[in-house]
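Slack export, channel: ligand-projects

TW: morning all. Re-posting the request from yesterday since it got buried. We need the structure predicted with the small molecule present, not the apo form. The ligand is zinc ion; the SMILES is in the block with the sequence. No rush, but it would help planning for next week.
GE: picking it up
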Amino acid sequence: MKFSLLCLLCYLGFHQHEVVDVKFGFGKSGKIMTVKCKNCGTVEIKTGD
Ligand SMILES: [Zn+2]
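GE: finished. pasting the full token output, ligand included:
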């Protein structure tokens, strides 16, 4: 198993997010972005600006 600084950053919660999808929500929900970590593959949904 390879250990790297990037893995350490993910472990600490500092993911290397890249935007994989952007949607525009309804009303006040605004923009919905789907981001994925380039290192560990964690997908998160972010809303707002
Ligand atoms: Zn990560």
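GE: first-pass observations. The chain has one domain: 5-47. DSSP finds one helix and three strands in the chain.
TW: perfect, thank you
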